[in-house]
Design a protein that fits this description.
It contains 6 helices and 7 strands, in the order ααββαββαβααββ. The chain is α/β, with parallel strands linked by helices and about 200 residues long. It has a 7-stranded mixed β-sheet with strand order 3-2-1-4-5-7-6.
């Protein structure tokens, strides 16, 4: 079962499952957007739009998701909040944008969901401008961390919902033009983390 199919099935109940447990993390993640002048922001994997109520209005937003059923629900939330945002069906591992298009790329609970997180991070790096930021909020295990429960669960859920075995440090090692600005716990000790990256000038 592919993620597109499974998230189509999950779309009607996604908010009921995810909204409450992730709300405080989303608020903390989106605080990073509240400062500064208007910028072009790409939201990768916006899903049903749970971020929308907490987004500051000064920026120019574009958002993607792989699943049309999720975006349909996101569009309803956009209308409810009278919010301006361009929604596109797209794969975060192969984004339909030219290089160096955005000031900020936001990745809330998406990098550890996709089958190939390295490709997703590399694509985010490609489309963000030199000096631009990538803001990540997701769950990762540490290098060398045993985490048997998380690794075992991953066998069953990686193809239908999310991965629980992603080591962020291994991804970053393969993206030499990304500089780590911040890495701090967000939830459940240090399993969920807020990570800020900056693209180096080429």
């Amino acid at each position: 079962m592919g993620l597109k199919f499974s998230y189509t099935l999950l779309a009607p109940i996604y908010d009921a499952i995810v909204a409450s447990p992730t709300q405080s993390m989303r608020k903390a993640s989106l605080q990073r957007l509240h400062q500064g002048l208007p910028q072009k922001v790409l939201i990768n994997g916006i899903g049903t739009g749970l971020d929308i109520p907490f987004l500051p209005e000064q920026h120019h937003y574009t958002a993607t998701d792989l699943t049309p059923a999720m975006l349909e629900r996101c569009q309803l939330r956009v209308k409810q909040h009278d919010f301006e945002i361009e929604l596109l069906t797209a794969d975060v591992m192969q984004l339909p944008f030219a290089d160096n298009q955005f000031d900020i790329v936001l990745m809330n609970l998406i990098l550890a969901v996709v089958p190939e997180p390295l490709k997703a991070l590399q694509e985010a790096c490609r489309v963000v401008k030199p000096g631009g930021k990538i803001y990540i909020m997701d769950k990762f295990i540490k290098p060398g961390q045993f985490a048997p429960g998380r690794r075992f669960i991953n066998i069953f859920i990686r193809h239908i919902a999310t991965r629980t075995d992603v080591v962020f440090e291994y991804l970053l090692e393969q993206c030499p033009n990304l500089h780590l600005l911040q890495d701090k716990p967000a939830f459940m000790s240090d399993w969920f983390r807020l990570i800020d990256l900056q693209k180096l000038d080429s």
